[in-house]
Amino acid sequence: MISTDAAAVVDELRELFRSGVTKPVAWRRTQLTGLRTLLAEQEDVFLKALYADLRKNAVEAKRAEIALVRNEIDHTLENLDSWLTPESADIPRPLRPGDGRVVREPLGVALIIGPWNYPLQLVLAPLVGALAAGNCAVVKPSELSPNTSAAIAEHLPNYVEGVRVVEGAIPETTALLEQKFDTIFYTGNGTVGRIVMTAAAKHLTPVTLELGGKSPAIVEPGADLAVTAQRLAYGKFANAGQTCVAPDYVLAIGDTGPKLAEHLAETVGAMFGADPATSDSYGRIISTRHHDRLAALLDNGTAVVGGEADRDERYIAPTVLTGVSPDAPVMQDEIFGPILPIIEVSDLDAALAFVNERDKPLALYAFTESDETKRRIETETSSGGLVFGAAIIHLAAPDLPFGGVGESGMGRYHGRYSIDNFSHVKAVLDKPLA
Ligand code: NAD
């Protein structure tokens, strides 16, 4: 897309925004209802596209790409009036008489740039917030999931007003980023996150960066290792490990490592059968480049389960590695694939030190029965989110803010946090003249 086209798209939306049509709550509700209808009427189209892009099975796609967004819509429709009600604020005695209140006003035109791993959810969930807050939006789905991108471009504009879809790769995104937006919401990797933030700085545009990184899972003696293995395996092997909050690696305290590895091997068998390559419920890697990157990590430890790869199929088996060195390549960058290394550490202090010596993760998981351990992890580490006893499920709780910290991102969304993210929170002080 040449920049004049990008400029025309933004100009058109800005004009619509300035007309004031997006501000009434009724307009916002209509758009959210439109999104809900889109998901209902085009479900089959989206399921086919997600299968073509990622071999995402229908059950997983319905849960993670469709139901999750529908729940976000319903939760927002239910609470929108109360979230938008101005909050009254106390005025200090020397300034009285007068009334103070806090109002949330839409920012204007938002740019939403999506990734390929949950290519529908990660475009529509932010869009729910943008529209509910009364904005217009340009949506740029990932070119690496071309079928889902095309389905979004074809159908979304038929169900909502104030939204334009721009498909494309780096040239199209670059042209969009040259334009002045009122907020930019980017989901993807930190390298592109820096490009987005640099472009935004030219226009002083606020950004939300939903990034990734290595999210650790701490396992302590005393935790039920069979249940721990099931919950870790679900979080790790859904979408073939291509989930921003998938547990990246395990820090197994004391003697938990070998037993946990056995349980994980059993769980993988129960989830996908003896040969996951033939399972309908197991996905594929998005591209040959990512396949090759992951295949090169398979020998970074001893595979207690998995270890196989098939380049033609872009298949990487669900793999658990033991005997992994913290210096191994698999422990350097986010894995973003179905390989789970287990690192053995002596005690909780060593686990906390391991986490704190590295970038702040998007998610931190811990499996323990000890309240004292929970308290220490909560107060002595920093991460986008913290989950005890499970993995990845926190992103489905719309009253919990979802976002990163440090290298895992900035800003947060879901539920009322999306409204704040896509609004200006304005101070109003009203003092009588007499
Ligand atoms: P990606 O390659 O699809 O890129 C994301 C978007 O950036 C795409 O729309 C793409 O067109 C655009 N882009 C790519 N290069 C660009 C450039 N040079 N200039 C401008 N735009 C460009 O997705 P990805 O980055 O490979 O996604 C994987 C990463 O995203 C992982 O690190 C993962 O953890 C993270 N992620 C985070 C979340 C979250 O919610 N925090 C969710 C999903 C993925």
UniProtKB/TrEMBL annotation:
Active site as annotated: 210
Keyword set, alphabetical order: Oxidoreductase
Listed CDD domains: ALDH_F3-13-14_CALDH-like
Domain Aldehyde dehydrogenase: 5-428
InterPro entries: Ald_DH/histidinol_DH, Ald_DH_C, Ald_DH_CS_CYS, Ald_DH_CS_GLU, Ald_DH_N, Aldehyde_DH_dom, Aldehyde_DH_NAD(P)
Keyword Methyltransferase attributed: no
Keyword Ribosomal protein tagged: no
Family membership: Belongs to the aldehyde dehydrogenase family.
Protein name: Aldehyde dehydrogenase
Organism in which the protein naturally occurs: Amycolatopsis oliviviridis
